[in-house]
Amino acid sequence: MPRVFAALMLPHAVCDQLARDAKAFARLDPLARFVSSTNLHLTLAFLGDVSAADAQRLSAAIRPLATLTPRSITIGRVGTFDRQRILYAGLTPAESLDPVVREVRSVIERMGLPMDKKPFRAHITLARDWRRGYPTMTMPSRTVQLSGPVLLETVRDPRTNAVRYRQII
User: Fold this and answer.
1) What does the alpha-carbon distance between residue 147 and residue 31 come to, in Å, rounded to a whole number?
2) CA geometry: angle at 20 spanning 15 and 24, to 5°?
3) pLDDT tens digits for the chain (169 residues)?
4) Topology of domain 3-168, CATH
5) CB 7 within 8 A of CB 149
6) β-pairing, 41-49 with 123-128?
7) Closest by alpha carbon to 165, among 14, 1, 19, 2?
8) Rounded CA separation 15/37 (Å)
């Protein structure tokens, strides 16, 4: 069964820039695990393990919600979730994402699928195992174009154990 989550993807060029910007923070915490540019995204809802058939049905059901997604958002503020040891890039205005988040989660509930019920926090995870508290550095602010929600599955490479995310169509 695929391990899935609903997300908004960022343009590839933006992901490459964010990954480069985030690497500057490595000197503050060299043991942190930085997210590769190909895995940067904005999670709307985490489901976990669901059947392949349910994943495909959900993917089709959330695609039309692109009309609720803001056309653009600004990325740049850096922060941490200390308990989870996460370094993240914040988004402004975060509340502009509320309509799409509410509807994606509503679709998941109507389909009777499992979902993590934690409140939504608009962020892009840049690094895991962050141990240095709130960073003293900043990142350049940039406004990016968003497309509609997609369903992603976590795929682990059996040779390297590296994780990557693949869209479910």
Assistant:
1) 33
2) 140
3) 889 999 999 999 999 999 999 989 998 999 999 999 999 999 999 999 999 999 999 999 999 999 999 999 999 889 999 888 999 999 999 999 999 999 999 999 999 999 999 999 999 999 999 998 888 888 999 999 999 999 999 999 889 888 999 999 8
4) Cyclic Phosphodiesterase; Chain: A, (3.90.1140)
5) yes
6) unpaired
7) 2
8) 5
Q: Tell me if 75 sits within 8 A of 14, measured CB to CB.
A: yes
Q: Is the dihedral of CA 110, 116, 121, 127 positive or negative?
A: negative
Write out the E strands in the chain: 3-9, 33-34, 41-49, 72-81, 86-92, 123-128, 142-145, 150-156, 163-168
Q: Domain extents for the chain?
A: 3-168
Residue positions counted in the chain: 169
